[in-house]
Each structure stands twice: as structure tokens, then as C-alpha cells.
Protein: TPM domain-containing protein
Organism: Nocardioides simplex
Amino acid sequence: MPTTALSAAERAALDVTIRTAEQRCRAEISVFVGAASGDPRDFATSLHNTLVLPARSILIMVDPDRRVVEIVTGGHTRQLLTDDESAQAVAAMTERFAAGDLSGGLTRGIELLGDLAKD
């Protein structure tokens, strides 16, 4: 995650939220906040493909300037998390983002993904 979008305390709190969600769903969760190059979906997919275990990973990509949120799931996690469930997480995040709460939106989205992607 780029450091300019979130404070050190917010990043630390998100790390804890990510680890807790990962324990619930047994998938790797990664977050990128920053400028997406080109098409946001293609950019998010390319980031996801660089992860250590893309098949077992969920990537959340947020471009605050363009107001874009993308969730990319790997083959294994796609069996656990439907597109509609990913859309629920995006809706929960964007509601908080619209209120100016980037950290709170990410926290809520990560928690929701962890709950929805359980085996």
C-alpha cells in the first residue's frame, strides 16, 4: 500500500484486520491504494497476478482519485466468493469512502470479504 493515502496507525490497524480476515477465510488478502495505470480492472488483475499465491488470493485495489474499486479473486477463492458477494464488499467500502473514511471503508470491506469467503 502506498504510504501517502493512510497514516502509519491506519496501516497497522488494517494489517491486523487483514490477518484476522485471512484466518477466517483461509485466503491471502492484499490491498493496493493508489493510482491505477490504464484500465483499472486490467491494472488490478496484473497486480493480483504478481502475488505469491494468486489462486488463493483476494486483491482489493482502490484508486481514490479516479474513485474506482476493484476486487480480483484467484481460482480457489472464486469458488468461495461470488461476484455478488464481492459487489457487496465494494458497496460497503464505497459507502464509507464517500463519507471521506478510506481506512474505515477498507476495514469494513476486508472484514466482509473474510466473512463471505469462508469455506
Summary: Helices lie at 8-25, 40-49, 75-80, 83-98, 102-116. The longest strand covers residues 57-63. Strands lie at 28-33, 57-63, 68-73. The domain at 8-116 is CATH 3.10.310.50 (Diaminopimelate Epimerase; Chain A, domain 1).
